[in-house]
Amino acid sequence: MKKISLGCIADDFTGATDLANNLVRAGMRVVQTIGVPDAPLGADVDAVVVALKSRTVPPEQAVTQSLAALGWLQAHGAQQIYFKYCSTFDSTARGNIGPVTEALMDALGTGFTVATPAFPDNQRTVFKGYLFVGDVLLSESGMQNHPLTPMVDANLVRVLQSQTQRRVGLIEHRVVARGEAAVRERMAQLQAEGVGVAIVDAVSNEDLLRLGPALRGMPLVTAGSGVAIGLPANFGITPSDQASRLPPAAGLQAVVSGSCSLATNRQVQDFIQRGHPAMAIDPLRMASGVDVAAEVLAWAGPLLADGPVLVYSTADSGDVKAVQGRLGVDEAGALVERTLAAVARGLVQRGVRQLVVAGGETSGACVQALDITQLQIGPQIDPGVPWCHSILPPRPALPVLAAPQGGVADLGAARRSSGATDDDGLHLALKSGNFGSDDFFTKAFTMLA
User: Fold this and answer.
1) What is the CATH number of the domain that holds 159?
2) CA atoms within 13 A on the CB side of 325
3) Which of 214, 239, 264 is the last residue of a domain?
4) In the 3-class helix/strand/coil scheme, how is 254-322 assigned residue by residue?
5) Is residue 163 a part of any domain in this protein?
6) Strand pairing report for 309-312 and 252-257
7) Which residues are CB-contacts of 337 (< 8 A; sequence separation ≥ 6)?
8) Residue 319: predicted pLDDT
């Protein structure tokens, strides 16, 4: 394997594919790994994105995981490190954006870096240090009701300063608009004033493309995925369709959704209104000991041969808070993740080879349950969400189960009729909860066909 140009550390799995998607669109050959690799990569690539599940774990764990990823990337010659977080900058009161940034800076021996979650393609912009989602402040966008990482302050300087010991400053839009030389001059000025991390304004892709050259040679970049469009050119790489080629798709289709974002709620409703079969799962029934995953798979088995099915825990913020009030925030989330991961594993055993997963935490749980270690990044479905491809590890034969009422006795029938085998490749789309158009689920399968 040749030395990689850009080594990336992402704090969740959907965020990792979001970043990888933008790098591929800019011409880089990219592999996303699930956790720190323990085996060689399958091919020579320009960038590696190490996907962690570290956004909501205690800061100490997030730091440990991120430093392990950094060590692997450095051992493979990464010329620049990119710490990727969500375009809504969401984190807990203790982090983890600030603590991980500081730990990476210390490990790399650098005293200055930038931070911006701007991603204009998905209506995330930063102006005067404030993060906007569309036309409203982050704190008015629905993110203030996020069940795990509620964001009640849109001022990124203030948010990040509360998480880091280093001084946080700002590179305003009027500077970015003047281009590379002005940005470099402002960075030098901030460093002279003792600033360690600078929030960067960006309201358009043109701003990110102007920022990119100014980041050439910077040991550590921290950002959402938007900045990625301006970095490949620093390594002499230009856009190419070859970077996003995936093998042809086959097999059955399904959607697993655990996100409770406004966007995903709309996508679930759109899918149902189009007449596709969908089944909601109830965390309270899971908590009572019911094997909800087995019920879902018994329901889905007879339906898979006729088109995509949807399994979802998606609900509005009021319903989510009611469940959390009865079960606790952590227990409610863990129950849903475990169940949806078991559903995803069972669907793939039954021949699903085109799988959409909505929600960062849900994506992480499903990918781990499927024992996926590497993803090849393919074409973009919607901004920030590409199709990916992975080779599945061998699995035991699917058992014959008892027939559900009105169903078929052998839930492996759809799998066998699909022609899928245990070592087939899986096409996988990991969608951040806030991303995608209302018709995303149906559009994704149409595009792959």
Assistant:
1) 3.40.50.10840
2) 6
3) 239
4) EEEECCCCHHHHHHHHHHHHCCCCEEECCHHHHHCCCCHHHHHHHHHCCCHHHCCEEEECCCCHHHHHH
5) yes
6) parallel
7) 258, 361, 362, 364, 365
8) 66
Rounded-to-5 percentages of helix, strand, coil across the chain: 40, 20, 40
169 vs 335 pLDDT, higher one: 169
Q: Which residues contact 179 (CB under 8 A, 6 or more apart)?
A: 210, 214
Among 67, 69, 166, 68, CA closest to 115: 166
376, 254: one domain: yes
Least confident of 105-109, 167-171, 225-229, 312-316: 312-316
Distance CA 75, CA 63 (A): 18
* pLDDT exceeds cutoff 80 at 384: yes
What is the distance of C-alpha 85 from the center of its chain? 9
Distance of CA 182 to the CA centre of its chain: 32
Closest CA to 167 of 144, 141, 199: 199
Integer Cα distance of 118 and 345 in angstroms: 34
Same domain for 185 and 254, yes or no, is no
Q: How many domains does the chain have?
A: 2
pTM above 0.90, yes or no: no
